[in-house]
Amino acid sequence: MTALSGKVQTVLGLVEPSQLGRTMTHEHLTMTFECCYFPPAPGDKMIAEAPIEMKNLHWLRQNPYSCHENLLLWQETDAVREELLCYRRAGGGTIVENTTTGIARNLPVLRQLAKDTDVHIIAGAGYYVDVTHSEETRKSTVEKLTDIIVSEVLHGADGTDIRCGVIGEIGTSWPITESERKVLRATAHAQTQLGCPVIIHPGRNPAAPAEVVRILQEAGGDISKTVMSHLDRTIFDHGELLEFAKMGSYLEYDLFGTEMLNYPYNMEVDMPSDSQRVQTLAFLVKEGYEDRIVIAHDIHTKNRLTKYGGHGYSHILKNIVPKMLSRGISQNQVDKILIENPKHWLTFK
Ligand SMILES: [Zn+2]
Questions:
Q1: Does pTM top 0.90 for this prediction?
Q2: Known binding-site residue numbers for a divalent metal cation
Q3: Which domains does the chain have, with CATH numbers?
Q4: What is the C-alpha separation between 39 and 261, in angstroms, rounded?
Q5: What share of the chain is helix, strand, coil (3-state, %, to 5)?
Q6: 136-167 pLDDT, tens per residue?
Q7: Are strands 8-10 and 13-15 parallel, antiparallel or unpaired?
Q8: Residue 154 CB neighbour total at 10 angstroms
Q9: Rounded to the nearest whole angstrom, what is the distance from the C-alpha of residue 109 to the centroid of ligand 1?
């Protein structure tokens, strides 16, 4: 038990869990994704370097990681503020902002956005994938990393007094690297001390989510308070999905709005459409997992913003919820996915 027990920690301080309302559990409001730049095909160099404009939008949606400018979401704070006001008007209450160390977390900007928009914003502690780890992080012991993560939650991060309310997204690759294993153990140890929510970015392999859960379990982590992100690009076989679901984490479908033919980080993957994502949610609900599902858009590039012809942060509330209701998911189940499950996850033990 800590002073945080029974509360949710936003960038503006502690709130009662009942205040959160509809919650997107995996978004970014300011970050850079330069770590994951993917060079364009030889014939696409011109379009990749051209300014973003209407005639390039189809190419950009298909190749979002091959345009350097598209990766700089941190440049769009004014557009993001507008979109958060839209999200509020659409009935949104809370956003979990998963930007961690390595992809340019900016807590003062998050605090200002929360003040300007009245959306509850919850910031993330810890580290993204290995390629973004500093030499210092790589050399740190599990104990040292644990202390840093705990301090980011209890005292504030990046030299500010702004406190994180979740650990993650904790980045892992496939195969999981040594440095990432250390961060996972530190995450579990910090979670044991704090009773806090954890959220994981798994590597792009169907075996990755279960391997992460095993590492967390061995280190004493609380899997029932852990979200596994990005299942929509990771586990495709329904049998394998149910096997993973039995391990007890929250199951997150968080790439709503992303429809692309070729997924450059794993060309084996057929990225699902939003309709297919809804079908998978309906399947999981039918199998009895309505208390374990959370959803989001994971906006991390400019082209996902409405300013650039994208779907924005309100897409789920405006378009996906009606689709869910028309595909056998009840209003009560939608409310669990958008309100109750995030609330339980985000409340400190
Ligand atoms: Zn993310």
A1: yes
A2: 26, 28, 169, 201, 230, 298
A3: 22-346 (3.20.20.140)
A4: 17
A5: 50, 15, 40
A6: 999 999 999 999 999 999 999 999 999 999 99
A7: antiparallel
A8: 18
A9: 17
